Amino acid sequence: MSNPKHSLSAGAVVLNDEGKILLIKGPRRGWEFPGGLIEIGETIHDGVIREVKEETGIDIEVIKFCGIYHNLKSNVCATCWLGKAIGGEMETSSESLEVGFFTLEEALEIITWSNFKERILKILNEEEHPFYVAF
Fold this sequence. Notes:
Number of strands: 8
Oligomer: single chain
Structural class: alpha/beta
Strand content: 35-45%
Number of helices: 3
CATH superfamily: Nucleoside Triphosphate Pyrophosphohydrolase
C-alpha cells in the first residue's frame, strides 16, 4: 500500500462593510482571493485567518465554511471559507504584489486563473453549501 500525500489549503472570500471582496494579485496566478497551505499542527480555521493576514494585512472573522475543491492531479484539497474584514491595514507581501477590495463584477472581470471565478460564486451562493468539487 502506498502512502498518500495530500496538501491542504484554505482560502477565503472576505467581504468588507460595503460588500466588496478582498483580492490579492499574486506573482504567479494574477488576481485571486487570499489563501494558502495549512501548516502542520494548525487548524484549518486558524490557517485561513493567518493566510489572509499574511497576504493582505487584513484581520478577519470567519463567517462560515463553504466547501472543498479537490484537485485529483495535484492532490490538493482546497477548503473554501467566507469571512468578514474586521481590522488591520491593507499591505502587500512576498505573496501579494497588490491588495484591494473590489465589487463582485470587478473581481470577476480581473480574475483569470483556472476556476477561481467559479469558487467565488459558489462561496457567495449559500444554497450550494457545503459543496465538494473534484477535478
